[in-house]
Structure prediction request, 848 residues.
Amino acid sequence: WFIDQLQPGSPAYNLGYALRVRGTLDLRVLEQALAELVHRHETLRTVFPAARGTPVQRVREPQSVPVTIPTTDLRHLPMEAREAEVERLAREEALTPFELATGPLLRSRAVRLGSAEWGLFFTLHHIISDGWSRDVLVEEVSELYTSLHEGRTPSLRALPVQYGDYAVWQRRWFTGEVLQRQLDYWRGRLAGAPPMLELPTDRPRPQEHDARGASVGVSVPPAVTSGVRALARREGATLFMALLAAWQALLARYSGQADVIVGSPIAGRTRLETEGLIGFFVNTLMLRAEFADDPPFRTLLGRTREATLEAYAHQEIPFERLVEELAPERSLGHVPFVQAVLSLHEDGRRSLQLGGAEMESLGGGGGETTARFDLSLGIALDTEELGGSLVYRTALFDECTVERMVGHFVTLLEAVAADPGRRIGEVELLSPAERAQVLVQWNATERGYPRERCLHELFALQAARTPQALAVDAHDGRLSYAALERRANRIAHHLGSLGVGVEARVGVLLERGADTLAAVLGILKAGAAYVALDPSSPEERLRFTLADAGACAVLTHSGLARRLCAFGGPVVCLDQESQALERRPEAAPALALCPGNLALVVYTSGSTGTPKGVLVEHGGLVNYLAWFDREVLGAEGFALPWVSRLSFDAHVRQLFPPLLRGEPVWILPEETVTDPDRLLQALSTRERVSFGGVPSLWSALLERIRCAEGPRPQGLEAVLLGGEALSPELVERTFALFPELALWNHYGPTEATVNTTAARVRPGAPVRIGRPVANVRVYVLDREGSPVPPGIAGELFVAGRGVARGYLNRPEQTAERFVPDPFSGQAGARMYRSGDRARWRAGGELEY
Prediction:
């Protein structure tokens, strides 16, 4: 009643039963039988009006409850259309809401399919019925109709009590010591339990419960069914206990939670007098399982057996009362404690007589239904081949996701039946096809790139092709490709004179400007790696970085040199030593370098501990830049200003891509980058422009545009975001102002060369981190290091050309995070374990 007040018109608590009748059906007699049924059961003539906001139960007199059966004739339709229409009508009937205050709370409807074939629908509200009541209703309608049809007295025994009698008895009995004993057990059993099961859904959970649902069929092959039954017998358990343990294990694997609660509906008819009543007796037991120790299935089954027996011994307390007593934080978006249930029932395919006609379940599978829980697994017990359905909330899950889950459930059953000593985490859920999909098909990223070249060599080749083209467009100067090449070569020779050699580390402490780019290229040409330093960093951080990196020299300007007083090596102030540099050779030093040589040492933020220097090689940078040029910039390209700090690896995709295609690097001064209005003004000066940065900065720019406090860049064609999670809200705001924009979401840890994956975000589409960049492989693995199925969250591992060499001066952390790659088939291949959680989505995109 309360849910009905919160969500008027919701069909969440409708119970629909669809039957097929083969033979002659007399609707007049059927109406008489239903009238007798309504007279016999008070619940069928009970309504629930409100008195001053409080619901009351009102039982109507039998004669005040008219019984009619609306009829629809489908005989004019072709057979296929007839079957589809009867299923549609059955769903429509089951989803039509009730008026609790006025009733009636039982509806019936007949559909004529042929001269001797009918569809018959009964729909009741859950407030007056449950699953057991369905069988009572169908059996008694069968007997009443048949006796009336044959002109004899029905053989139904008089009901000893009505539901109201049971309700009064329950209220009186369930008090004092009885109530306290039950509450004490459940409080202890559920202490510390998770408030909800965090299943990996296809869409965010709505703020209010959406009861729309659908179902997919479940079919357990006879051999697996036989194996599970035999296992249960050997372990002294029931088939229900074995299926429950397997269902809980699957949910633990899907959710990644070590503590799982599954609900199970029980009949609640512990008194003989209640067995023949139509009414709401069903209760939901909360059955808890813990997986922190990754138990073998045999151990889990033993625990499940004990937990189930204890729960049944304390089943009298209603679920709603228990929730009230435990007082969890409530939400309209989900049922408290229980998001997944398991129910076992009889096959339901038995036929009953309706006079001379045969009546059986209409059948059908899938289609629209109601879903009170996120997932409801229903299994029929009395068949050689276990079968049933998995009902799911369509607001949360796609059909393909649930079908995949059903397949994994059957796979898990087969595995544990064959080897119950296997630990839950060791059970392989992936089918061979799924394994090939996540390891091979979605990682088919091989692309050509200049494999034998280093980064500075590619620049030199471009400088030779376009010597007079503009290479640097900066606030402090403009340089042609030839001029930049000469300046970088001179810096390289100067460093060589200081003893800087191959794979030495040289610090760069410069504000954004033309000298920064020349310094970086000069270091690379000297065979060394540049150590990116941030001028805004505290001196303590600068001292630590230079000492940890073992820097042999630092390139800077005189205004920043004072911050390096603790550094003992050569400090080259480029602004003061211009004459000395001019005397150095213009040609590049003759060095034999390879793509495996070190190019960059970039430090992590240190937010989770001491900052770590990541060793990035030329080959990783060249591969990434080739991908970026091909996939992001495309044939025409666009102006991309350098706005990130050199100490962030995002500078790679802002500094180098233009240099490798003969375009100028656009360098904005610090005061422009840090002022949203100035930055927007700068972006507005170009006809075809893009912006790259973190989502928080882009959000601030959008807000300035929205409030008309900053200029709107009319030539903005692309926005490249990364470094932070991209929210759907920011995506929506972006496309509201720039509907034609190319919006990119880049993801990648520092250890994986700028970006691991990228996604072109579309309006209205889910926000994903996309697919692996070229020549990079991505694995999503569980705690055992095995690939997880699509849709399940796991730890993200990165392999392939983009993985850095490791950490500087931290061999133990390198060994811990840069681990062997068992999936590549190549000896010595490594992958980086990111610590981030992700999952594959349908089609091969990753979701963070």
Notes: The chain has a mean pLDDT of 92. The chain is about 35% helix and 25% strand. The longest strand covers residues 830-841. Residues 297 and 420 are 5 Å apart (CA to CA).
